[in-house]
Amino acid sequence: MAHGKDKKKQARSHYVLNRQTLPAVATLLKVPLATLRRWKAEARQNSDDWDTARAGSLVAGEAYTELIAAALEEFAVQFRAVMDAIKGDKALSAVDKTKLLAGLADAFNKTVAAAGRAAPKISELGVAYDVLQRLSAFAGRTRPDLAPALLELLEPFGDEIAEAYDGR
Predict the structure, then answer these.
(1) DSSP the chain
(2) What would the pLDDT profile of 87-111 be if each residue is shown by its tens digit?
């Protein structure tokens, strides 16, 4: 069965950008695995190495941003655990707690700054959501009569913001 260029593009996209395995792509697109392997080999001969493109997409694309986001999330979990441990440790003096908290705050600031430099879209999305939350709170305080309508509008708009800044 002959497959068109569109099917080849879809296969490449699923393999490179979505990081799916060739067998998964074969099943998804209903293309024999042998055909996908042939397309991949032909592409390499024509200077389009799917594996190189796949590796590059991890560093430059959404997968990299997701990696940074996951690392930030894990850091936040550990940050909270250490904060709780410091607060709960009755044997620590106030001076020692202050030193530990200062070190923890420094690590937090450096981690967030590094993540923002490594994946600026995460930082931009965070600012966008912060603005939306502040607008919602402001409306609730100053114009409670308009707050329900604004909230009704902001919920779907949040999806647009996520798409614009995060590529979802």
Answers:
(1) ----HHHHHHHHHHHHTS---HHHHHHHHT--HHHHHHHHHHHHHTT--HHHHHHHHHHHSHHHHHHHHHHHHHHHHHHHHHHHHHHH-TTS-HHHHHHHHHHHHHHHHHHHHHHHHH-HHHHHHHHHHHHHHHHHHHHHHH-TTTHHHHHHHHHHHHHHHHHHHH--
(2) 889 999 988 888 888 888 888 888 8
